[in-house]
Specification:
Blueprint: H1 3-7, H2 14-26, H3 36-49, E1 53-59, E2 63-70, E3 77-79, H4 85-94, E4 101-103, E5 126-133, E6 139-147, H5 155-188, E7 199-206, E8 214-221, E9 224-232, H6 236-259, H7 266-283, E10 288-296, E11 301-307, E12 312-315, E13 321-323, E14 327-328, E15 342-345, E16 351-355, H8 358-363, H9 370-378, H10 382-395, E17 402-409
Parallel strand pairs: 11-14
Antiparallel strand pairs: 1-2, 1-6, 2-3, 4-5, 5-6, 7-17, 8-9, 9-10, 10-11, 11-15, 12-13, 12-16, 16-17
Helix pairs in contact: 3-5, 6-7
């Protein structure tokens, strides 16, 4: 038990506080960067009420953290024991039907004397706080407005205040939904390839936003491995939903063949998926670029289909970069299109690199492929290539999802 829970009149029962903090953590918002969508709310509040200060705050176990704070020069963290918002959180449990806390003159309330600036010139006099809720309906923070003079809220102002708090609540819920979607999308990516004698493999997928339309997949088949990189047009949740559907269709086609003890070629798989996805892609006016291949590990032979994907190359052992032939249209562009397979062989020291077009943005202007070709030629080792790509993403926020799969046949000598 902390000192705060011993002395604070607004302390909650330990089991209640544990549930509340767990709900807060499920939002995955604490200590994230400022976002314009929350800044719009605080700017609107300051304008509508003619006040100097407004904030969206989250209340952790021992601190109050501001997701957005305007007009208060206090940083982003305050000890929870020195905030008025702790009283708003407590009131939510005491008066759930009337949770707003309105204090017309905080300087006249001795219980808030510990709050920095209360009663001082230019300090907080008026406070209005409304709880924000996390999963399970637990109060995890507040939308609050402040003034340096005592004041009250008229009935219409109170209505507006609650509406702005509801706006902040919707943004928090959207954050939770997106984070859950991002978690699901990450778990749909396959695990590491593991031991693949004679080969090294590295794969990565970094969405430009929380979720994206790129994905990669790989799984073992008799005598080798199947690799896929796909990119659904667009970004965000819509693209992510369609990406999951394409992934399921690809795996479904392969698994169905296994059940009847039949081996589907890469072109059969892609043509089957195109038929399955035709209605969904047509109704959403969306297309999918796709690179799908099967590697025979004994010989290094690769049978592949490039459906409009565009960036798939082989970096040879002598650092020469060979492009691949037989690029076809993306899925969803035209009906009644079929795709043919191309073939290549990975010699010892050769690396197959397949990337989404986000890599072109990362390494150039998004249209000129030459910088990307030069880059992969300098980094033929899969682990090194992926590590450097991750470092570039960390330095320069990508405009598009960045997905990369590299498969190298290791020299035996």
């Amino acid at each position: 038990m902390t000192a705060e829970t011993t002395v604070s009149p607004y302390a909650l029962a330990p089991d209640v506080e544990d549930e509340r903090v767990r709900s807060l953590n499920q939002l995955h918002v604490l200590d994230t960067p400022p976002e314009e969508r929350f800044a719009r709310i605080t700017r609107m509040a300051r304008h509508v009420f003619g006040i100097p200060m407004a904030a969206v705050a989250l209340v952790d176990r021992d601190r109050q953290w501001f997701k957005q704070v305007d007009g208060l020069d206090i940083g982003v963290n305050l000890p929870r024991s020195k905030t008025i918002c702790q009283a708003t959180i407590a009131r939510t449990y005491e008066q759930p039907d009337d949770p707003a806390l309105i204090i017309e003159d905080a300087a006249a309330r001795p219980e808030f004397a510990m709050v920095p600036g209360i009663g001082e010139p230019g300090g907080i006099r008026f406070y209005a706080g409304y709880p924000l809720y996390g999963p399970g309906g637990h109060p995890v923070g507040t939308f609050c407005i402040y003034d340096t003079e005592p004041r009250a809220l008229s009935e219409s102002e109170y209505t507006t205040f609650v509406e702005l708090a509801s706006w902040a609540q919707r943004e928090l819920e959207q954050t939770d939904d997106i984070q859950r979607a991002a978690d699901v999308q990450r778990h749909l990516l396959p695990g590491a390839v593991g031991d693949l004698p004679g080969y090294s493999v590295c794969a990565m997928c970094l969405p430009a936003y929380a979720v994206g339309g790129d994905f990669y997949d790989h799984y073992r088949v008799g005598g080798g491995m199947v690799f896929t990189v796909a990119d659904v047009m667009g970004k965000g949740l819509g693209a992510a939903i369609l990406a999951a559907s394409v992934r399921a269709a690809l795996r479904g086609a392969s698994r169905a063949a296994e059940l009847v003890e039949c081996r589907m070629s890469p072109e059969d798989v892609v043509n089957s998926v195109a038929v399955q996805m035709a209605e969904d892609l047509g109704s959403t006016d969306t297309f999918v670029t796709l690179f799908h291949c099967e590697l025979d590990t004994a010989s290094g032979a690769v049978r592949y289909v490039d459906a409009g994907h565009g960036f798939a190359v082989v970096v040879r052992a002598d650092e020469r970069v060979d492009g691949l032939d037989t690029a076809g249209l993306p899925l969803g562009v035209l009906d009644d299109v079929t795709w043919q397979a191309g073939r290549l062989t990975l010699g010892e020291g050769d690396t197959l690199v397949v990337a989404s077009d986000g890599v072109l943005d990362l390494l150039g202007d998004g249209t000129d492929v030459r910088p990307a070709l030069q880059y992969v030629a300098r980094h033929p080792q899969p682990a090194d290539l992926c590590a450097r790509a991750r470092a570039l993403v960390a330095e320069k926020a990508p405009l598009d999802d960045v997905t990369l799969v590299a498969v190298r046949r290791e020299p035996t000598g």
